[in-house]
Amino acid sequence: MSFNNELIVSFVQLLPKAIVKRFSDRYIAGDSLADAVRVVQDLNKKGILATIDVLGEAINSKEEASASKQACSEVLDAIRKLQLKANLSIKPTQMGLKLDEDFCFQQVSSLVEKAGTMQNFVRLDMEDSGCTDATLRLYRRLRAASTNCGTVLQAYMRRTLDDLEATKDLAPNIRLCKGIYIEPEEIAYKAKDEIRKNYLAALTWLFEHKQYVGIATHDEFLIDEAVALIKKLQRPQDAFEFQMLLGVREDLRDYLVESGYKVRIYVPFGKDWYLYSMRRLKENPNVAGQITKNLFSLRRL
Fold this sequence. Notes:
- It is a single chain.
- The chain is of the alpha/beta class and 301 residues long.
- It is built from 12 helices and 8 strands.
- The protein folds into 2 domains: 46 residues, no CATH class; 241 residues, TIM Barrel (Alpha-Beta Barrel).
- The chain has an 8-stranded parallel barrel with strand order 1-2-3-4-5-6-7-8, surrounded by 7 helices.
- The chain is globular.
- 39% of the residues are buried.
């Protein structure tokens, strides 16, 4: 992130939450499950799949984690009742990962089991580097009993290819993304070209080992390279999907759908939208710059 972009993001963080929310609403379905359902139904009508995420990562007690699990269970109920073409994404820390790994496992395994009864799927999101080993331990325990769960690996982490090798016995379902958390250079690539190179190396590995992969990126270069790899390695359409965030690069989303590819959109909702918004601004400071530009435009009116 450039110095100017850092200044812009710092400025946006000082704004009242009400102002930030006006500009983050594009990327968040709303405060309630009903809001998420509405967005998912609209996506489904366009031939687009979804993964629903209940926002909230600042868990300080098992009671809060249990409430988060209940909210996720209600998402599965809505998917079943309304026959949504969607699955569930969860953050392990939201389920109590940092409080008690065994407790977290019981929470998540209950959701995975429930999803299995309805032939659905649960994605374990990947958080900052302090959670990587624990998340992969959790995933290994879950996969011992269930196949309807997957996790995420981040291409900017230097360890990603090693993690692929370490989990290949699980035949995992992997969502491959660039990564969003601020990590030290000794464990994470920083240069765009380095991250792209590692992303494509990981994607090639997944294709060659015939593992299902969610190609999660808005980077047009990576999408073009992924399509080229799919054709070169003759991967069937049911072996992968493209994944994007709500409200981001809808032009690319629509292009992929029109080209016949399976596309899944990440649909977050909930009252804990602010931390999510700040992380997205840090990942894409152009959004913060647009907020700033719009604010000064409003002041001139």
